[in-house]
């Protein structure tokens, strides 16, 4: 839901003659509304621009408080022709999420002349504290001027922001065309998710009704900032995008004038595959096509377009088809950058913190193909032999070995001397000195009263990926809960080192196990599930030395990690996937599951290629898919579950969490479901991260306070529950029982109250015996 905050101005209508300029009106604000003005606004006497001020007059204050905060505005009397509109604007620090609009009203239609985000204006405490804005009107017709403002729907928005507008002047029409002010820039680098591009629209406009505006020097013609996120082929994650209307509507994004341009990089996609856009250049006030570029639906395509313009250049992107066009990122490089040999990117980048056990190479990417010239490579003053460099076209890979102390960053400085790399075929084009400062880290930072164990091997399956990092309090008053965390990555990529945000649990004195697991390419399903269960078994078997309470196990994960958290937690004491690990013979309990936008119903997620690849040979085995689909395990005993999901998630459909939430409700399971409006696949605004952490804290506090002992695991003591003779199973408990027998795929093949059961054949079975007070689960093999 959009919050709107309208602008408040106080203008005294009149005609003044200054410097031979005639005005339709000049500002001399007063508490009363001048004749002909329509005003819903406030005023301030404490802050005035020092230009045209008069005793007893006031400046206009556009705030977000008081009644009618959504319909405050100022509309001038009708005027007949004008050349320019000018005014001064200031703001306070809380206006970060406000936007000021200035427009023309003709009849019942309003045309926005200009849009200003708060970053355009200085704070009142700055010097100078006001910005002067001048807008060309160049209109001989009859119209009114309107001012209004809006406040963002961003949850970070503070209800205390304001703009102050002073010294508003509208000159009379003279017939002299005042050219629009066209800002020039050296380079363009757009980040549509950085909060400086105005309000993010979450509900799309219908074609033909797209708005137009100007922001940060860009003219958005029939285009607007729209919610959504995508990760492109390079791993670059885009948050928000500019959505352009169809070509029939003349939709385009016009750039600020570039002083020079050597190369343009555009990240774009369309609503349908095989559509296109045009890159155009303004020549003699006419737009000329540079090229037409074919698009795909998702993810975005990356277009690197050489231009080589060594003078001021005006460019635009225009939609070329009947499909919506998404612009995710625009980068320009100067003429000098395109012609001289320059470093395009590096890994690590300046100031980056990398993990010493994962980072094996320094990678340098140049704008041209290179070979070795003359010079040196120094890493912390130690020379790296030049023959170590591996060069493929424009990419240089330098193998390195980093070290560090767990929990402590180590500083590194890379220095590459001038001329070490030379453009292929152009010996005169040499690289300049390259200096990169970065740090290495092996483990996350943890409190001083914690111990940290990194790269603990929790099961032996000849894999480097069955490792986890364990952080636990040293001297707790009692054993503590443990959070078992899994990274995401579509079951095919990711590292435990990517994970963070554990202070939530450290502040509660919880232990944390950050788990790595086998993924597609090394092992298909159910290996990842078996690994996570194996990590739990390791923690249970070492609970005493790690100060862990076996009755308070919490699984947490996001995306594919969310799925692993759900299935590992919902299996509870079911040993179906407790394979290739040392089983725990004592009692344990899953206290809760924290699911961050993970898939819960795999049968309705089979369109996702990464899932199909992870399932491998089981991708058409319905019984197997059911056995690793969390939704199929929901029952009255399912652990309490916290769920968070963005309703615009382009990867894991929001409906996955809706389905899970409804199933948990139907089974009477405690759960909390938080929706992030317009949220994508993670990457939520900071305010929602804060909300999520607060909700998880409250959720776990309530669960922990209400916890009972629940399910028992009697593996290793099964003879007290049943005996086996051949295929005959006898229940030895005198109390009334319900026995469920599952085959190894997880299919329930027998459900009975009888005490004597004949098993179908020699096989592996899961036996679950329930009484009114207890539940006993074991895996047996009939040979």
Rg, Cα atoms, Å: 32 Å
Structural class: mainly beta
Overall structural domain count: 5
Query: Would you give the CATH topology of the largest domain?
Result: Rossmann fold
CATH superfamily of the largest domain: Alpha/Beta hydrolase fold, catalytic domain
Mean pLDDT: 85
N- and C-termini, Cα separation: 63 Å
Number of strands: 51
Task: Provide an overview of this structure.
The chain has five domains: 17-172, Jelly Rolls (Sandwich); 184-338, Galactose-binding domain-like (Jelly Rolls), CATH 2.60.120; 345-441, Immunoglobulin-like (Sandwich), CATH 2.60.40; 450-706, 3-Layer(aba) Sandwich (Rossmann fold); 718-781, Immunoglobulin-like. Strands 1, 2, 3, 4, 5, 6, 7, 8, 9, 10 and 11 form an eleven-stranded antiparallel sheet that branches. The protein has an eight-stranded mixed sheet with strand order 37-38-40-39-41-42-43-44, with helices on both faces. A hairpin with a 2-residue loop joins strand 1 (17-18) and strand 2. The radius of gyration is 32 Å and the shape is globular. 41% of the residues are buried. Helix content is 11%, strand content 40%. The chain has 783 residues and is mainly β. Residues 1-19, 51-57, 66-70 and 708-719 have low confidence and may be disordered.
Element layout with pairings:
Elements: E1 17-18, E2 21-26, E3 38-40, E4 42-44, E5 59-63, E6 73-75, E7 79-91, E8 98-106, E9 109-117, E10 131-151, E11 162-172, E12 184-185, E13 213-215, E14 218-221, E15 223-231, E16 237-244, E17 252-254, E18 257-258, E19 261-270, E20 276-283, E21 286-294, E22 301-309, E23 315-319, E24 325-333, H1 335-339, E25 343-347, E26 353-355, E27 361-366, E28 370-372, E29 377-379, E30 382-383, E31 390-392, E32 395-399, E33 410-416, E34 421-423, E35 426-430, E36 434-441, E37 450-457, E38 467-473, E39 480-486, H2 503-506, E40 511-515, H3 527-541, H4 543-546, E41 548-558, H5 560-570, E42 590-596, H6 609-615, H7 622-627, E43 641-646, H8 654-666, E44 671-676, H9 686-706, E45 722-725, E46 728-731, E47 738-743, E48 748-752, E49 756-758, E50 764-770, E51 775-781
Parallel strand pairs: 12-18, 26-36, 39-40, 39-41, 41-42, 42-43, 43-44
Antiparallel strand pairs: 1-2, 2-11, 3-6, 4-5, 5-11, 6-10, 7-10, 7-11, 8-9, 8-10, 13-14, 14-17, 15-16, 16-24, 17-23, 19-22, 19-24, 20-21, 20-23, 25-27, 27-32, 28-34, 29-30, 29-33, 31-32, 33-36, 34-35, 37-38, 38-40, 45-46, 46-49, 47-48, 47-50, 50-51
